[in-house]
Amino acid sequence: MSYIDVTGKTEDEAIRKALEQLHMDRDDVSVEILERAKSGFLGIGSSPARVRVTYGQEEPEAPAAPVQPEKKPEPRPQPRPQPKPEQPKTRKPEPPKAPVKAPEPPKAAQAPAAAPEQSVPDDNARRITEFLTGLLEHMDSPAQVQVTETEKGRYSVVLEGQKLGQLIGRRGETLDAIQQLTNYAVNTGTDKRIRIQMDAENYRARREQSLESLARKVATKVQKYRRSVTLEPMNAYERHVIHAALQDVKGVTTYSVGAEPNRRVVVAFDRGEAR
Predict the structure, then answer these.
(1) What is the pLDDT of residues 127-165, one digit of tens each?
(2) The domain that contains 163 carries what CATH number?
(3) 135 and 159 both lie in a single domain
(4) How are strands ordered across the β-sheet holding 154-160?
């Protein structure tokens, strides 16, 4: 592009002179004010305006160099892993086989051992078992009957099972009734009488301990107050337990009064032994 520098009293005058010299319009040029006009004082120190007018076509800019794409470094080929040489497989030594035993000849069949001889119950035990089994079936009781002859003419009967409280009753009254009924049924029509003692859930032993404890307490009371004490009605067996428990106690004596089933034991103060 070309330019000219023109001066004038004012900027407008300098631009007008430049356009007249170039024979161009204002839109065809570009104006750059180099110095503005100064009026000064009374004409002293004044200076004209100075402008630069540029005209003509702009030179085309050189095309920018094309951007070259960056070259990525090519990956280096990786070395292939070399196959490891196969090691020869070592066979584990097999355990020695056990020698095969020759089949043993079949043993001769042994004769079965003879079963131990079981004692056959006598006629009395059989009748006791038959009677009680039928009686318990009528009472819907699952109790089992075990009969043992303790001595000549005396048999111990134990009723075995669970929840036999209904066969014992209050203070053994039901058990005593079954015992009395069994004695009567088995001894009917026989020449030799036998005695049957019946128990269930070890009631007799527990009742005996309770009676012995009661007898000692009553004896102590009789000795202290020197007054007789009459116990509740008991059967013959329970009365016998009271008599036996106090027979060696000094200062007391025992005897029975009344008739069955209300027969009682009296524990009395013995004045003769107390002296």
Answers:
(1) 999 999 999 999 988 899 999 999 988 999 999 988 888
(2) 3.30.300.20
(3) yes
(4) 144-151, 154-160, 195-200
**pLDDT reported for residue 81:** 56
User: How confident is the model at residue 3, as a pLDDT?
Assistant: 82
- Tell me the percentage of the chain whose pLDDT exceeds 90: 40
| DSSP annotation string for 179-227 | HHHHHHHHHTT-SS--EEEEEETTHHHHHHHHHHHHHHHHHHHHHHH--
264 touches 234 (CB < 8 A): yes
Q: What is the pTM of this model?
A: 0.47
Q: Tell how strand 154-160 and strand 30-35 pair up.
A: unpaired
Q: Provide the residue type at 226 as one letter.
A: R
CB 268 within 8 A of CB 222: yes
Q: Give the number of domains in the chain.
A: 3
Q: Going by C-beta distance under 8 Å and a sequence separation of 6 or more, which residues neighbour residue 215?
A: 241, 242, 245, 246, 267
Query: What does the pLDDT look like over 222-253, one tens digit per residue?
Result: 999 999 999 999 988 899 999 999 999 999 99
How far is C-alpha 20 from the chain's CA centre? 116
Using the 3D structure, point to which of 153, 169, 201 is the last residue of a domain.
201
Q: Which of 55, 74, 96 is the endpoint of a domain?
A: 55
> What Å distances lie between residue 186 and 143, 153, 240, 262, CA to CA?
19, 12, 24, 25
Instruction: Confirm if 219 and 267 have CB atoms less than 8 A apart.
Output: yes
